[in-house]
Amino acid sequence: MNPDRRQRVVDNAKYLRNVRPLDPEEIAEYVEGHPHPAAVRQVIREEAFDLGLIEREDGTFVPVSDEPIPDGGEPVTAFPDEYTRRVEHLLVERFGPGWNDGTSADRLRERIRQFKEHYYRGRPVEYDDLAALGYAIYHLPNYYAVGRYVIDELARDGLLPRALRVLDIGAGVGGPALGLFDSLPDDALVEYHAVEPSDEAADTLNELLDETGRNVRTTVHRTTAEAFDPATLDGSEDGSDTEWDLVVLANVLSELDRPVEVTARYLDALASDGSLVAIAPADRNTSIGLRAVERALADERGDCSVYAPTVRLWPGEHPTEECWSFDVKPDLDVPPFQRALDDESGTFVNVSVRFSYAVLRPDGRRRVTVEPDPDRFARMADMDRHVTERIDILAAKLSHDLTDDGNPVLKVSDGSESVGHFAVMTRETALNRDLLAADYGDLLAFEGVLVLWNDDEEAYNLVVDDDVVVDRIPV
């Protein structure tokens, strides 16, 4: 459609959008030359985000709701069938129906072993089509679940608008993105841009994005996080109108030479009420690395606030200890393609859902805004004064049970500590079981907790026995 006719379609859509549902056939009648309704429909689809319109099942368009995206809240039990079929299609397309037998299976297993070893040793992984398919087999289900859980956290707090502009940095083969899309209601309007330097991963990502809904527009940019400029997507020369509601950096910070500088640049591209979500695997190095970026931006540079899950409860204080903190969710069902490739060793099955994340915001907003009363609660920064004493503290729960057996041990924080603090449950009672029942990131009040120093771990143990009361504090 020529530019003049296109503009007339847009003008008519703007005029009629608040009058009645837009019917492409009706708009075609108003445009000189009467373009085909299918061409009008395509123009409206392409302009839908700027027009604030969603397409309904009957083919008409209506304004997107002003209400935020609601909390899905459902646990993720399995990798969805439609994505499973798409992954299996890619494998059959590449290797034939017997992809999980013989040479092809051996090559896939070897490549998965290889990138697991490289990742463990902190070496870069070189992408080719075999690596991209290996990632889809081994990582996609887990990353999908992580994306669902983190997005549901944001939706629970009303932080995602129905018209959502998303920038996904280092998108890989698409796990978090697919989780994002499945967390959204049908009446959400999404403009999604992915940045992925590997052509092979981008090809796989594009295949999987074909499963997205009618109101999701996707674009994949084949470049690096360092080279990409989000302002280039805007019509203004200086990019001043470029605003993203959500920027996602999932499993990419550990691969960047200058993660703080790169993340700061994407923070600058956020809308004033937008959120940047950084996600990392739960292993020690990547999890600690994510917290280091969070602290460099929020505590040292002051570029943003930490919305969740870590806290800064005491004014003027911030944590400086080495923070290994991650959430744990229920295991997924084993996807068919993992079961088909596995050699009964379990090496090629990856269904545990453990991840670290941080939500950063430019507007200073925090999920937990409680400020402790210094006349009642002790600061972790002063814990050396309280060894062998019973005290009251406020702290966020930043782990699940870290032991395999014995007394449960959980990481807790008030955001002032310079060494680690761990709550040790020695006797569970009705008055203290909130410690175990609380969700990751919840704020807890401890009354009468016993402070001990652990020489072996060089950390403080906060002993929770039958004299201690633990309460969840609403935020």
The SSE order reads: HHHEEHHHHEHEHEEHEHEEHEEEEHEEE
What is the CATH architecture assignment of the largest domain?
A: 3-Layer(aba) Sandwich
Largest sheet entry: 8 strands, mixed
Structural class: alpha/beta
Distance between the termini: 53 Å
Shape: globular
Unreliable spans are 235-240
Give the C-alpha Rg.
25 Å
Query: CATH superfamily of the largest domain, called what?
Result: Vaccinia Virus protein VP39
Task: Give me the secondary-structure topology.
Blueprint: H1 3-16, H2 24-30, H3 37-51, E1 53-55, E2 61-63, H4 81-95, H5 102-120, H6 129-138, H7 140-156, E3 163-169, H8 175-183, E4 189-195, H9 199-209, E5 216-221, E6 244-250, H10 259-267, E7 270-281, H11 284-301, E8 305-308, E9 327-329, H12 336-341, E10 353-361, E11 390-397, E12 409-413, E13 421-425, H13 434-437, E14 443-454, E15 459-464, E16 469-473
Helix pairs in contact: 1-3, 2-3, 5-6, 7-8, 10-11
What does this entry show, briefly?
This protein has 475 residues and is α/β, with parallel strands linked by helices.
Plain-language structure description:
- The chain has helices spanning 3-16, 24-30, 37-51, 81-95, 102-120, 129-138, 140-156, 175-183, 199-209, 259-267, 284-301, 336-341, 434-437, and strands at residues 53-55, 61-63, 163-169, 189-195, 216-221, 244-250, 270-281, 305-308, 327-329, 353-361, 390-397, 409-413, 421-425, 443-454, 459-464, 469-473.
- It has 475 residues and is an alpha/beta fold.
- It has three domains: 3-63, Arc Repressor Mutant, subunit A; 120-361, Rossmann fold, CATH 3.40.50; 380-473, OB fold (Dihydrolipoamide Acetyltransferase, E2P) (Beta Barrel), CATH 2.40.50.
- Strands 3, 4, 5, 6, 7, 8, 9 and 10 form an eight-stranded mixed beta sheet that branches. A five-stranded mixed barrel has the order 11-12-13-15-14.
- A hairpin with a 7-residue loop joins β12 (409-413) and β13.
- α7 (140-156) packs across α8 (175-183).
- It is globular and about 85 Å long.
- The N and C termini lie far apart (53 Å).
- The relative contact order is 0.09.
